[in-house]
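Notes taken during the Thursday session

The instructor put the following on the board and asked us to keep it in front of us for the whole hour. The protein is Outer membrane beta-barrel protein. We were told not to look anything up and to reason only from what is written here. First, the residues (220 in total):
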Amino acid sequence: MKKIVFALMAMSLMTVNFVNAQDKEEKSNDFKKWQVRVRALGVAPDESATIGVIGGDVNISNTIVPELDFTYFFTKNFAAELILGTTKHNVEAVNTVAGNVDLGSVWLLPPTLTGQYHFYTSDSKVFKPYVGAGVNYTFFYNVKSGAVADVKYDNAFGFAAQLGFDLMLDDKFFINVDAKRLFLNTDVTVDASNLAPGLIVPADVDINPWLLGVGVGMKF
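Then, after some discussion, the predicted structure tokens were revealed:
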């Protein structure tokens, strides 16, 4: 009986010490599990295409848009980030046998989820770079067909690579600089039957945009 009581007391003491140690650790650092950022995002496609029937290549316009993202920290170093934003791009087939063809415009919604590793460069934890990689799924919507009868884009999965840093202003607010590369490909079908009867042009398009962002964030 005495051995059982002694064992229970020892386990209780170990549990109390473990909880106290965790509490001290959490109170002694700035580990906050959530952060949110608002960024101005420049989107610059690094595009190329294989176009059937008429040949040529593709030109996709650059754009600047607002972007919102949320980050959850599993530990002080490992986190997951969800990026939300939508962009409009003008599209043109260039150097085809028919010359340059206006393909109108398309909106892209590419929610992207990355896993990140955050570095702490000093005890002050003011400058915090990070690297990340993940996946994205791009929706194409609100298509305007320009000079042709219709353009269809297939929604597609892609991969993402990421590099950036947070510059802490205090223990809550920070400035963020971020660069991502999406590796994104889509199949496009152009209905140009208004230009030549029965003309349907398939294209395999690599969009592969660079996403360059600057903004502010808050930890909570």
